[in-house]
TrEMBL record:
Chain ranges of the Nitric oxide reductase subunit B cytochrome c-like domain: 37-217
SUPFAM superfamilies found in the cross-reference section: Cytochrome c oxidase subunit I-like (SSF81442)
Entry protein name: Nitric-oxide reductase large subunit
Alphabetical keyword list: Membrane, Transmembrane, Transmembrane helix
TM ranges: 7-27, 229-250, 283-306, 334-354, 366-385, 411-432, 444-462, 482-505, 517-538, 544-565, 585-608, 628-651, 663-689, 714-736
Organism encoding this protein: Aquincola tertiaricarbonis
Length: 759
């Protein structure tokens, strides 16, 4: 007991100190973010852009698709360019051409030395910081102003209807007239210029270091990897190796307790579903429908990398453009995984406490229909706003905000936040009897409730930015949501629920599970909270973010090294007695989570996390490989395992057609592996080579994206996609058979479950 109390104190200390440090660094990001000038002017006083245009351009880009249509500072989608890198390269080459034309007036035949001198002059001009803090202006030469106008004309036509750029739009998977209003397109060019200016201009007080720490790689302007990125990458690798060694040493030196004696019969076999537990059925069937929708949208989105505005010749982009299909694909993935975990919490709460609170079923039903309204409403309004170009206000409030994994409009975010708080209330009132009563599992139940409270409360970070918030701060808060909410507290919640499941099945001892879950949460949050910063290396942040982010993102990987080992031990325990065969595919789903945690989150995650790696591969398919393996492999398989466990208790054992689960399980995992290792990872490596050799602009250019190699790798996704989709269909068939009328009559009758909490 004393040992457990000490662990709880350590957890509280880590939580407070880590979030204090994260908040302090957020304040530093706010203070040192690239300034938005009041005006960009020529040396003659002509105004090229105003500060209002830069801010309006940010909104216009998001309304046109934002991070679903290319990237800015490396965050977003992968078919269109990184607009910061693209502008930077175009402006540098245009300025070189202007300076070369000037020199030819003096010496028609330029020597190599002449050209080198011109290139050096261009480099120095683009790196020189001419921002005047007192006047709030950035001053550029007349020649650079000419180059800026040329590049601005290109982007004006690209986001408009310029016929000569139709092929390029198709290669970028852009629709014609993405921004119909001329004023919005002009503002867009101001925003793109500002992001590239921050990427090349030396930060005050620094030598040869831009606001974005010299990202992206662009030799023309002297953007090469900084010393801090190289040094802290080496430190992170050393810390990773040291952390793994320490973890293995502690694991080996720890006195292993006697394993739990597995009961002779299933402890959950006699449990009866209460009305609120039975009300969660519709959540799980909806989850499968959303999963199928996500897979379909993923196939369409991937195909747009070959045919930018068509699907096997069908002009599908007229009604379902790339921006919409990718938004649905990423957003629905978060929705269905989160819905599984919400429903699991509502299912297990009465199971653990043994009591059904009054009106609990009504609350579960209301929450379900509220979630349906949010999912369908946000999807529809996002599609409508994009297709009909409803403008920046519609986009921000009810349409598509243009931010990866959190794209729904502000109204829908507020409604979802209210829904999550209501879920915490329902969960808390159902768990309260178990929380009040002393028991061996009370610590685990407390962890479930605390993590659920964080899930509800931390979604408030989606409300922290506004339409005029600085882009660096939008990224800071967005990663609070994506990294801490999805990858942090949901994982703690799910891990605690799994521990409770295994405890009540008799696979692990309650006391051991209590200590283990708190210790694992300490280790995970110790690296995970400040590890959030590894997403922010190049978003206009100070170099301290590189130092802290690289160190703690390395430590974040350390506990994943043991998860695969724990998964094997879990699988071995699952063979202890014959009755556990009923939970075979539940347990194997958790084993798959261990595998993908080690490979997808650990191996592929650390492959891109060190600054020296991310400097070259941010915004390339290396990130997509990690994202697919980690998001579905870890969180998706975890959700499927939890869903199968709940369905096992909601329907009579005789109704489950387990013959469909075996091919479904293997198809999902093999299909995912094929998708990642035959297509996404090789594509990312191929792009990384191009990024290192010539620059990020080249790795994201049509010359690479639509090269025979890349298009072949896109087609190599098809076999994996088919196998993966087949697994999802088989899972749907399994669920459908539970709904057949003849089987429904034999469903488990409602009743009150006796408390399963260990006394």
């Amino acid at each position: 007991m004393k040992s457990t109390q000490r662990l709880w104190r350590w957890l509280g200390l880590i939580f407070v100190v880590s979030f204090g440090a994260l908040g302090y660094l957020g304040w530093q990001i706010y203070l040192t973010a690239p300034p938005i000038p009041k005006a960009v002017v020529t040396s003659d006083g002509e105004v090229l852009f105003s500060g209002e245009q830069v801010q309006r351009g940010q909104q216009a880009w998001m309304a046109a698709g934002g991070q679903q249509l290319g990237t800015v500072w490396g965050h977003g989608s992968y078919v269109a360019p990184d607009w910061s890198a693209d502008w930077l390269h175009r402006e540098a080459t245009a300025l070189q051409a202007i300076r070369s034309a000037e020199q030819r007036k003096v010496a028609p035949n330029l020597t190599d030395a002449d050209q080198a001198a011109i290139n050096a002059r261009v480099r120095d001009e683009m790196r020189r910081n001419t921002y005047n803090e007192s006047t709030g202006t950035v001053t550029v030469s007349a020649e650079r102003a000419q180059a800026i106008r040329e590049v601005a004309g290109h982007f004006d036509g690209l986001f408009g209807t310029e016929p000569s750029l139709a092929k390029l739009r198709d290669q970028y998977a852009m629709t014609e007239g993405a921004l119909p209003e001329k004023a919005d397109r002009q503002a867009l060019t101001a925003f793109f210029f500002w992001t590239s200016w921050a990427a090349a201009t030396n930060r005050p007080g620094e030598t040869e270091l831009s606001y974005t720490s010299n990202w992206p790689h662009e030799p023309l302007v002297g953007n090469t990897m900084s010393t801090s990125a190289a040094v802290w990458s080496m430190v992170s690798i050393i810390l990773l190796l040291a952390g793994i060694a320490a973890m293995l040493w502690l694991h080996g030196a720890d006195k292993h307790e006697e394993e739990a004696r597995v009961p002779a019969c299933d402890p959950l076999l006699g449990a009866k579903a209460t009305p609120s537990m039975k009300a969660t059925r519709k959540y799980f069937f909806t989850v499968i429908g959303l999963m199928l929708l996500q897979i379909g949208m993923g196939a369409i989105t991937a195909h747009y990398a070959v045919e930018g505005q068509a699907f096997f010749g069908i002009p599908l982009a007229q009604v379902l453009p790339y921006v919409v299909s990718r938004t649905i694909h990423t957003q629905i993935g978060i929705f269905w995984i989160a819905t599984v975990w919400l429903a699991t919490g509502l299912y297990v709460a009465p199971l653990l406490s043994g009591k059904e609170p009054k009106f609990q079923k009504l609350g579960v039903d209301l929450l379900f229909w509220a979630l349906i309204v949010v999912v369908l409403g946000s999807t529809f309004t996002g599609w409508l706003g994009t297709l009909q170009h409803r403008g920046v206000d519609f986009s921000f409030w009810v349409g598509n905000q243009g931010l990866d994994f959190t794209s729904m409009g502000r109204v829908w975010q507020i409604l979802l936040f209210i829904g999550l708080l209501f879920w915490v209330f329902l969960l808390g009132r159902a768990l309260w009897p178990a929380l009040k009563k002393p028991s061996e599992t009370r610590g685990l139940i407390a962890m479930v409730f605390l993590s659920a409270t964080c899930i509800g409360g931390f979604y408030a970070t989606s409300l922290t930015w506004g339409q005029h918030t600085h882009y660096s701060m939008i990224e800071y808060w967005r990663w609070w949501l994506v990294h801490l909410w999805v990858e942090g507290f949901f994982e703690v919640f799910a891990t605690a629920v799994v521990a409770l499941i295994f405890t009540n099945l008799g696979l692990i001892r309650a006391a051991s599970a209590n200590r283990a879950i708190i210790a694992e949460t300490i280790v995970f949050l110790f690296g995970g909270i400040l590890g959030t910063l590894h997403h922010l290396y190049w978003t206009g942040t100070p170099t301290s973010v590189i130092a802290v982010g690289s160190v703690f993102s390395a430590l974040e990987v350390v506990p994943l090294t043991l998860i695969g080992l724990e998964a094997l031990q879990t699988y071995r325990r699952s063979k202890a007695v014959p009755w556990l065969n009923a939970y075979k595919w539940v347990i194997l789903s958790f084993v798959a989570v261990g595998f993908w945690n080690t490979v997808g989150a650990g191996l592929l995650g650390f492959a891109i996390n060190p600054p020296a790696s991310l400097y070259y591969v941010q915004g390339l398919n290396m990130t997509a490989a990690h994202g697919h393996a980690a998001l579905f492999g870890v969180y998706g398989m975890l959700g499927i395992g939890l869903m199968l466990f709940c369905l096992r208790g909601l329907y009579d054992r005789a109704l489950h057609a387990d013959k469909f689960l075996k091919p479904a399980f293997w198809s999902l995992n093999i299909g995912l592996a094929m998708m990642v290792f035959l297509s996404l990872l090789p594509a990312g490596i191929y792009q990384a080579w191009a990024s290192i050799s010539k620059g990020l602009w080249y790795a994201r250019s049509p010359e690479i994206i639509h090269s025979p190699v890349m298009e072949t790798l896109v087609w190599l996704r098809v076999p994996g996609d088919i196998v993966f989709a087949a697994g999802s269909v088989l899972l749907a068939v399994y669920a459908w058979r539970l709904l057949r009328p003849a089987r429904r009559a034999a469903a488990v009758p409602a009743g009150v479950t006796p408390s399963l909490a260990k006394r």
